[in-house]
Design goal:
672 residues; Jelly Rolls; 3 domains; 5-stranded antiparallel beta sheet; 19 helices
């Protein structure tokens, strides 16, 4: 068999659950009643909803099912036999702390478009057999043909019973399928699979010895009953097929749905969201040097999509290798191979091309965006800040929409509103000219020139900005490409890779394994590594991302564990803890941490009247007696009052180090 390799966090959310609580009112005035899962399904038009409505599921969503049963029932709804089921195996160590499979299956798998209608995934170990996958802890996506969006479902095993709790439009983990955590979803449709899977092949083919790549499955896992049932009988399929199915879902469903919104009645929030991928990186992919050839995709040094816009202006006769061959070639004969370099996501690039193809914007307008911060191919704060600042202005002073009946007309108006710096337009020059700004230093120089009205053609190298035609802009990009190809270029890209990976760690729920210590500064939140004693002793930083249902009103609560190794310290007195809990009334909660020595300390106990949602923060936990660092650390969360259901979403622990960052609880979004 072939085990494909993908590295990400938050791809699935397993839950340890007790019985669902009934509706109650507390003395503090808090009332809550369990919603009807069946009523949530009635207006949905997808094969999972149709299966569940026809099933013996209770109104509150209790059902007896498993992976293969779900696939069989959905196959009936889709009109595809079980013979059309294909399973893809991805492996990483982020859930189990050791190489462990994530299984994803599709139906109607000989037709990429039909196959992209349904995905089912299982990612966690079976309690009865830790070498096998749990086939009742599931995530599922299905395409709603009426709403033109993917619906997100999950099943949560109920502890001590052979039933599961069905969740509809699951709030937890949705950020993995949307955009970076610094951006609201703004109602845009989510992806069925983690965002970098839009173009997974460069990710899967990272260099073999890169630490986030090699996750060979054990023979015990390959021969385990559940794993064998889901992959045997000719069901196991290749990465190449999976890539085509995912791309079909992204292009033919998600992007098409997003573009369709341009015909909707003019709405500032929606139109701004339609423009956002051109300015802010919603998605991210990873580029890797082609074995020992010294060849890298040009998107490593020139913003992805720039080449497409030049070709849309004119399909040939451009003089640059980075555009014509779409690669750069290192001149050095040797050097560390560049692998897993974050680049602009293929989903954003494809959406941008489609936006131009429907004439919502011109290629020249897009190239004006690309010319801003042109030396920063991905994660440009200059470009994204222009969009964010325009959104803030428009929220406080919405434009007159009388002359813009649809989002399509409104987008042209908003484009001009975004391309503004300190009240001065960045759209100087003729249609084939762009204001080229090298980086943040050039932006400061440009501010002064805009204020003085002196932006003109000039020496970009000297001023950091200039007004140039497209040939001049292409020459600037060619200079950057040639500098990357020359001696020392590979080393510079390796340094830049570390910077980009730090951004990914901070801003994207789905991300490769990476030593976060290189990203930490002196002021990294409420607690920093300088606050933690024993810096000369071995450190540990680990996380448990397995989501668990907190028993509602149960005195025992839920317990999650992290095994620490490598500290070789028997006198730890202080640890750094990061916590993410989704809950509707956090005053119900008490959180405790138990050290390997057995000593238990309260992390936080909220006032019962505290009606705020969620817990998302960093805590320093001090122990009365020194404890060993190595061993099992246990986090216990107790919900002392019935009525509000909650989840322990994730937690991380740092010993002589900061606790690793986590996905924020919930999907907090701001209305426009």
């Amino acid at each position: 068999m072939v085990a494909l390799v993908l590295v990400m966090t938050g791809a699935a959310c397993a839950v340890d659950s007790g019985e669902q609580g009934g509706g109650t009112c507390t003395s503090s005035g808090k009332c809550d009643a369990p919603g009807s899962v069946r009523s949530e399904l009635e207006d949905l038009d997808d094969p999972i909803a149709r299966w569940l409505l026809a099933s013996p599921m209770t109104d509150s969503g209790i059902l007896r099912t498993d992976y293969l049963t779900a696939v069989e029932k959905v196959a009936e709804q889709m009109g595809c036999g079980m013979a059309s089921m294909r399973t893809f195996v991805l492996s990483d160590d982020l859930v189990a702390g050791r190489p462990f499979p994530r299984l994803i299956s599709t139906l109607c798998s000989d037709d990429d478009t039909r196959a992209s209608e349904f995905f089912i995934a299982a990612s966690f170990a079976d309690d009865a057999d830790p070498d096998d996958v749990n086939v009742t802890n599931l995530e599922m996506f299905a395409w709603d043909t009426t709403a033109r969006r993917y619906r997100f479902y999950a099943t949560l095993p109920i502890q001590g019973r052979d039933e599961v709790q069905v969740e509809v439009e699951v709030r937890r983990c949705t950020q993995c399928h949307l955009n970076s955590r610094s951006l609201d979803d703004d109602g845009m449709p989510m992806l069925p699979i983690m965002n970098e899977l839009t173009r997974p092949w460069p990710h899967w083919n990272a260099e073999p010895d890169f630490p986030s790549h090699t996750f060979e499955l054990t023979d015990e896992t390959k021969s385990a009953p559940n794993f064998s049932a889901l992959t045997g009988g000719g069901r196991l399929a290749s990465a190449a097929l999976f890539e085509q199915i995912v791309r079909s879902g992204q292009s033919n469903r998600v992007i098409a749905s997003r573009l369709r919104a341009r015909r909707d009645p003019a709405d500032v929030g929606q139109a701004m969201a339609l423009l956002r991928p051109l300015f802010c990186d919603e998605q991210v992919n990873y580029a890797t040097e082609d074995f020992s050839s010294g060849v890298m995709p040009a998107s490593a040094v020139v913003t992805g999509g720039t080449r497409d816009m030049f070709l849309a202006v004119r399909p040939n006769d451009w003089p640059w290798q980075w555009l014509n061959a779409d690669v750069i070639r290192f001149q050095e004969a040797s050097g560390d191979r560049v692998a897993m370099l974050p680049v602009r996501g293929a989903a954003d690039v494809e959406y941008e091309k489609r936006l131009v193809s429907v004439k919502a914007l011109t290629p020249q307008q897009v190239l004006r965006i690309r010319a801003l911060d042109w030396s920063t191919p991905v994660f440009s704060t200059i470009r994204c800040d222009l969009w964010k600042q325009a959104r803030a202005r428009l929220r406080s002073a919405p434009p007159d929409l009388s002359a813009t009946p649809t989002n399509s007309e409104l987008m042209a108006l908003l484009y001009s509103e975004i391309m503004v710096l300190d009240k001065h337009s960045l759209l100087a020059g003729t249609g084939d000219q762009v204001v080229a700004v090298r980086d943040a230093a050039g932006l400061e120089e440009l501010r002064a020139a805009l204020a003085a009205g002196t932006v003109a053609t000039g020496d970009c190298a000297a001023d950091g900005f200039c007004l140039v035609d497209l040939i001049g802009f292409g020459n600037l990009l060619d200079g950057r490409a040639k500098a990357s190809e020359a001696s020392g270029g590979r080393a510079a890209l390796l340094d830049d890779r570390e910077r980009r990976l730090c951004v990914v760690q901070d801003d994207f729920a789905a991300r490769p394994a990476f030593d976060r210590a290189a990203c930490l500064g002196a002021d990294s939140g409420p607690a920093s590594s300088k606050d933690l004693p024993g810096q000369g002793v071995g450190s540990f930083a680990g996380a448990n991302q397995e989501v668990r249902l907190i028993p509602d009103g149960g005195p025992g609560g839920v317990t999650s564990r992290i095994s620490a190794t490598g500290t070789e310290d028997d006198s730890v007195e202080l640890v750094n803890l990061r916590l993410a809990i989704a809950h509707g009334w956090r005053g119900d909660l008490t959180v405790r941490l138990t050290a390997p020595s057995g000593e238990t300390r309260d992390v936080v106990s909220f006032d019962p009247s505290d009606s705020s949602d969620d817990v998302d923060g960093i805590f320093l936990v001090v122990f009365d007696s020194p404890t060993a660092g190595d061993g099992e650390w246990q986090l216990t969360v107790v919900d002392s009052a019935a009525g509000e259901q909650g989840f322990l979403e994730a937690w991380s622990l740092g010993i002589h180090a900061l606790a690793p960052s986590l996905d924020s609880p919930g999907s907090r979004t701001a209305p426009f």
